């Protein structure tokens, strides 16, 4: 037993320098950060600022790869077939934690992703064209009650937070809406600006159009009113018991070495603290929301459990 103990100590002593060397040499080439929404939207713009800062901290470029569609879950799915070496990481939107309840998959969103850190969360709201007859949320609801299933609204995809929150609000209000999914904020804004929709439920990617006088905000979904839109009431103020801010962060493939995860964590945390990132977030009334690797994994577990109840409440689960 003494000999075995000495052998284990020797192996550990040999492994420690190897881990240190790997941490010091990583990364030796550019890192790919896969995000869930198209170029030009708030996720793309803010994550590019973050990636630029992280690349400087890592000494290698962090290259954004846009993979929109499937309710924001494609980057997480891509991690399942990527090498666990730290060179491919991905945005993890909240919709990832709903996936097993709505779609047949062979991987687990909690166990099969290495959680690096959380970086921010979306601010959401409902907007209509500036010339819409809906001047207030009360106008919106009155029309929906008088015209069941005819009031069209767009979201950034089926089973995304905007879609589910609108359906939850509709359920509480006893109204039926016509949902039209898009791949991301950029496509959704083009649709509502082009007259293809009566309303849009989105993260605050709509801010530039509102500030230009082209769209009107009917409500926002945080615990408090947004600084950028102080006249827009929250859902809770309107009597709808919902608060939605949808935190998201960065994950890596299952089995990514802890020293590589720490290197990524430290670089992205440093990137979050830079003024350029905070400025990009402020453009959409978003703020940094930091969780370290352990806290983010616990958040994933808690959210995975909570989202099951929401999907079941709305009757949107996959057939048994």
How would you describe this protein?
The protein has 320 residues and is α/β, with parallel strands linked by helices. 41% of the residues lie in helices and 19% in strands. Strands 2-1-3-10-4-11 form a six-stranded mixed β-sheet. A five-stranded mixed β-sheet has the order 7-6-8-5-9. The protein is globular and about 80 Å long. The mean pLDDT is 92.
Map the helices and strands.
Blueprint: H1 2-25, E1 31-35, H2 42-58, E2 62-66, H3 74-79, E3 88-92, H4 99-102, E4 113-121, E5 124-129, H5 137-146, E6 152-155, H6 161-173, E7 178-181, H7 185-193, E8 199-203, H8 207-211, E9 215-220, E10 247-253, H9 258-272, H10 275-282, E11 288-291, H11 293-313
Parallel strand pairs: 1-2, 1-3, 6-7, 6-8
Antiparallel strand pairs: 3-10, 4-10, 4-11, 5-8, 5-9
Which structural class do the helices and strands define?
alpha/beta
| Number of DSSP-assigned strands | 11
Ends: how far apart?
A: 53 Å
- Helix and strand pattern: HEHEHEHEEHEHEHEHEEHHEH
How would a textbook summarize the main sheet?
6 strands, mixed
Mean pLDDT: 92
Q: Provide the gyration radius in Å.
A: 22 Å
β-strand amount = 15-25%
- Quaternary form: single chain
The amount of helix comes to 40-55%
Give the spatial strand order of the biggest sheet. 2-1-3-10-4-11
Describe, in short, the structure shown.
The protein contains eleven helices and eleven strands.
